[in-house]
Amino acid sequence: MAGKVFFSVSMSLDGFMAPEDVPVEDVFSPEGQNDPRVQQWMAKWSELQAWLFPQRWFRENLRLGEGGEEGVDNDVARATHERTGVSVMGKRMFDAGELAWPEDAPFHTPVFVVTHTEREPWVRPGGTTFHFVNDGIVSALDRARDAAGDRDVRIAGGAETIQQYLDAGLIDEFSVTVSPVLFGTGLRLFDRLDVSKVALEQVRAEPSPRVTHLTYAVRPR
Protein backbone atom coordinates (compact mmCIF):
# COMPACT_ATOMS: atom_id res chain seq x y z
CA MET A 1 0.00 0.00 0.00
CA ALA A 2 1.39 3.39 -1.03
CA GLY A 3 2.06 5.94 1.67
CA LYS A 4 0.81 9.52 1.89
CA VAL A 5 2.30 12.64 0.36
CA PHE A 6 2.62 15.31 3.04
CA PHE A 7 4.53 18.35 4.18
CA SER A 8 5.39 19.56 7.66
CA VAL A 9 6.67 23.07 8.37
CA SER A 10 7.02 25.67 11.10
CA MET A 11 5.06 28.87 10.55
CA SER A 12 4.85 32.23 12.29
CA LEU A 13 1.52 33.24 13.76
CA ASP A 14 1.00 35.67 10.87
CA GLY A 15 1.55 33.01 8.23
CA PHE A 16 5.21 33.15 7.21
CA MET A 17 7.45 30.08 6.94
CA ALA A 18 10.66 32.06 6.39
CA PRO A 19 11.91 35.62 6.90
CA GLU A 20 12.57 38.08 4.09
CA ASP A 21 14.40 36.74 1.06
CA VAL A 22 18.18 36.89 1.55
CA PRO A 23 20.62 35.15 -0.86
CA VAL A 24 21.65 31.81 0.60
CA GLU A 25 25.29 32.44 -0.18
CA ASP A 26 25.10 35.50 2.08
CA VAL A 27 23.35 33.66 4.91
CA PHE A 28 25.86 30.80 5.04
CA SER A 29 29.11 32.51 4.06
CA PRO A 30 31.62 33.84 6.60
CA GLU A 31 31.51 37.23 4.88
CA GLY A 32 27.76 37.45 5.27
CA GLN A 33 27.74 37.03 9.04
CA ASN A 34 28.39 40.75 9.55
CA ASP A 35 25.61 41.81 7.17
CA PRO A 36 22.67 43.31 9.17
CA ARG A 37 20.21 41.66 6.75
CA VAL A 38 21.73 38.25 7.45
CA GLN A 39 21.79 38.86 11.20
CA GLN A 40 18.11 39.81 11.16
CA TRP A 41 17.27 36.77 9.01
CA MET A 42 19.10 34.40 11.36
CA ALA A 43 17.48 35.95 14.44
CA LYS A 44 13.98 35.51 13.00
CA TRP A 45 14.68 31.99 11.71
CA SER A 46 16.09 30.94 15.07
CA GLU A 47 13.03 32.32 16.86
CA LEU A 48 10.69 30.46 14.50
CA GLN A 49 12.50 27.14 15.00
CA ALA A 50 13.25 27.62 18.72
CA TRP A 51 10.78 24.88 19.66
CA LEU A 52 12.82 22.26 17.78
CA PHE A 53 16.41 22.96 18.85
CA PRO A 54 16.17 21.61 22.45
CA GLN A 55 14.39 18.36 21.53
CA ARG A 56 16.14 15.08 22.24
CA TRP A 57 15.38 13.66 18.79
CA PHE A 58 16.74 16.75 17.02
CA ARG A 59 19.95 16.65 19.03
CA GLU A 60 20.38 12.93 18.39
CA ASN A 61 19.72 13.23 14.65
CA LEU A 62 22.28 16.00 14.21
CA ARG A 63 24.70 14.40 16.69
CA LEU A 64 24.75 17.46 18.93
CA GLY A 65 25.22 15.44 22.09
CA GLU A 66 23.17 13.51 24.60
CA GLY A 67 20.14 14.79 26.45
CA GLY A 68 17.38 17.13 25.42
CA GLU A 69 13.72 17.69 26.04
CA GLU A 70 11.01 15.06 25.68
CA GLY A 71 7.27 15.53 25.32
CA VAL A 72 4.82 16.51 22.58
CA ASP A 73 7.32 18.52 20.54
CA ASN A 74 9.91 15.76 20.62
CA ASP A 75 7.28 13.14 19.70
CA VAL A 76 6.09 15.19 16.72
CA ALA A 77 9.62 15.75 15.42
CA ARG A 78 10.52 12.08 15.75
CA ALA A 79 7.26 10.84 14.19
CA THR A 80 7.69 13.13 11.20
CA HIS A 81 11.16 11.73 10.55
CA GLU A 82 10.14 8.12 11.07
CA ARG A 83 7.17 8.22 8.66
CA THR A 84 9.29 9.74 5.87
CA GLY A 85 10.61 7.26 3.34
CA VAL A 86 11.69 9.88 0.79
CA SER A 87 11.89 13.69 0.66
CA VAL A 88 11.27 16.02 -2.28
CA MET A 89 12.56 19.59 -2.33
CA GLY A 90 13.11 22.54 -4.63
CA LYS A 91 16.48 23.78 -5.87
CA ARG A 92 16.50 26.82 -3.57
CA MET A 93 16.12 24.66 -0.45
CA PHE A 94 18.84 22.32 -1.70
CA ASP A 95 21.20 25.21 -2.41
CA ALA A 96 20.78 26.49 1.15
CA GLY A 97 21.15 23.02 2.64
CA GLU A 98 24.23 22.16 0.61
CA LEU A 99 25.94 25.06 2.37
CA ALA A 100 24.48 24.41 5.82
CA TRP A 101 23.97 20.65 6.32
CA PRO A 102 26.67 18.56 7.96
CA GLU A 103 28.46 15.97 5.84
CA ASP A 104 26.07 13.36 7.24
CA ALA A 105 22.96 15.13 5.87
CA PRO A 106 19.99 14.83 8.25
CA PHE A 107 17.59 12.90 5.95
CA HIS A 108 19.01 9.35 5.87
CA THR A 109 16.74 8.55 2.90
CA PRO A 110 16.71 9.32 -0.82
CA VAL A 111 15.97 12.99 -1.62
CA PHE A 112 14.67 14.16 -5.00
CA VAL A 113 15.53 17.76 -5.95
CA VAL A 114 13.29 19.52 -8.50
CA THR A 115 15.66 21.58 -10.63
CA HIS A 116 16.56 22.66 -14.15
CA THR A 117 20.21 21.84 -13.51
CA GLU A 118 21.59 18.47 -14.60
CA ARG A 119 23.75 16.77 -12.00
CA GLU A 120 24.76 13.26 -11.06
CA PRO A 121 23.34 11.83 -7.79
CA TRP A 122 25.14 13.15 -4.74
CA VAL A 123 25.75 10.40 -2.18
CA ARG A 124 26.30 11.44 1.44
CA PRO A 125 27.27 9.37 4.48
CA GLY A 126 24.44 7.99 6.59
CA GLY A 127 22.07 6.88 3.84
CA THR A 128 21.18 10.20 2.14
CA THR A 129 21.44 10.37 -1.65
CA PHE A 130 20.28 13.45 -3.56
CA HIS A 131 18.79 12.80 -7.00
CA PHE A 132 18.26 15.73 -9.38
CA VAL A 133 15.04 15.72 -11.45
CA ASN A 134 14.82 17.95 -14.52
CA ASP A 135 11.34 17.15 -15.83
CA GLY A 136 8.98 18.62 -13.26
CA ILE A 137 7.23 18.03 -9.96
CA VAL A 138 5.12 15.09 -11.13
CA SER A 139 8.16 13.15 -12.34
CA ALA A 140 9.95 13.89 -9.06
CA LEU A 141 6.95 12.61 -7.08
CA ASP A 142 6.61 9.47 -9.21
CA ARG A 143 10.25 8.63 -8.57
CA ALA A 144 9.89 9.43 -4.89
CA ARG A 145 6.86 7.15 -4.52
CA ASP A 146 8.71 4.30 -6.17
CA ALA A 147 11.62 4.76 -3.78
CA ALA A 148 9.44 5.20 -0.66
CA GLY A 149 7.56 1.90 -0.97
CA ASP A 150 4.84 1.85 1.68
CA ARG A 151 6.32 4.78 3.62
CA ASP A 152 5.32 8.43 3.16
CA VAL A 153 6.78 11.04 0.82
CA ARG A 154 7.56 14.38 2.44
CA ILE A 155 7.57 17.56 0.37
CA ALA A 156 10.32 19.24 2.34
CA GLY A 157 10.11 22.74 0.83
CA GLY A 158 10.54 25.51 0.19
CA ALA A 159 7.30 27.46 0.07
CA GLU A 160 7.10 27.66 -3.73
CA THR A 161 7.61 23.91 -4.15
CA ILE A 162 4.96 23.13 -1.52
CA GLN A 163 2.53 25.49 -3.26
CA GLN A 164 3.12 23.80 -6.61
CA TYR A 165 2.28 20.39 -5.17
CA LEU A 166 -0.81 21.76 -3.42
CA ASP A 167 -2.03 23.45 -6.60
CA ALA A 168 -1.53 20.21 -8.52
CA GLY A 169 -3.71 18.31 -6.04
CA LEU A 170 -0.83 16.04 -5.03
CA ILE A 171 -0.80 16.61 -1.25
CA ASP A 172 -2.76 14.22 0.99
CA GLU A 173 -2.02 15.81 4.36
CA PHE A 174 0.03 18.54 5.97
CA SER A 175 1.13 19.69 9.40
CA VAL A 176 1.89 23.25 10.45
CA THR A 177 3.70 23.99 13.69
CA VAL A 178 2.57 27.48 14.66
CA SER A 179 5.20 29.40 16.63
CA PRO A 180 4.14 32.40 18.75
CA VAL A 181 6.20 34.87 16.70
CA LEU A 182 5.26 37.62 14.23
CA PHE A 183 7.37 38.34 11.14
CA GLY A 184 5.35 41.05 9.40
CA THR A 185 7.06 40.24 6.10
CA GLY A 186 8.71 37.21 4.56
CA LEU A 187 7.75 34.11 2.57
CA ARG A 188 4.13 33.18 3.14
CA LEU A 189 3.27 29.50 3.14
CA PHE A 190 0.03 29.91 1.15
CA ASP A 191 0.83 33.15 -0.70
CA ARG A 192 0.14 32.10 -4.31
CA LEU A 193 -2.05 29.06 -3.71
CA ASP A 194 -5.22 28.62 -5.78
CA VAL A 195 -7.52 28.24 -2.78
CA SER A 196 -10.51 27.44 -5.02
CA LYS A 197 -9.06 23.94 -5.44
CA VAL A 198 -8.33 23.09 -1.80
CA ALA A 199 -10.58 22.06 1.09
CA LEU A 200 -9.20 21.08 4.49
CA GLU A 201 -10.32 18.67 7.20
CA GLN A 202 -8.69 19.06 10.59
CA VAL A 203 -7.15 15.80 11.75
CA ARG A 204 -5.65 16.85 15.07
CA ALA A 205 -4.36 19.77 17.14
CA GLU A 206 -1.56 19.19 19.63
CA PRO A 207 -0.56 22.14 21.82
CA SER A 208 2.66 22.25 23.79
CA PRO A 209 4.10 24.94 26.06
CA ARG A 210 6.11 26.25 23.07
CA VAL A 211 3.96 25.83 19.92
CA THR A 212 0.79 24.31 18.48
CA HIS A 213 0.97 21.43 15.98
CA LEU A 214 -1.96 21.43 13.51
CA THR A 215 -2.58 18.60 11.04
CA TYR A 216 -5.05 18.73 8.12
CA ALA A 217 -6.18 16.27 5.46
CA VAL A 218 -6.42 17.85 2.02
CA ARG A 219 -9.60 17.27 0.00
CA PRO A 220 -10.54 18.49 -3.51
CA ARG A 221 -13.05 21.34 -3.38
TrEMBL record:
What SUPFAM superfamilies has UniProt attached to this entry? Answer: Dihydrofolate reductase-like
Per its UniProt record, what Pfam families does this chain match? RibD_C
Alphabetized InterPro entries for the sequence: DHFR-like_dom_sf, RibDG_C, Riboflavin_Biosynth_HTPR
What GO MF terms are annotated?
5-amino-6-(5-phosphoribosylamino)uracil reductase activity
- The UniProt record lists the Bacterial bifunctional deaminase-reductase C-terminal domain at 4-210
Listed GO biological process terms: riboflavin biosynthetic process
What is the protein name stated in its UniProt record? Answer: Deaminase
Q: Identify the species of origin.
A: Actinocatenispora rupis
Lineage at the top is: Bacteria, Bacillati, Actinomycetota, Actinomycetes, Micromonosporales
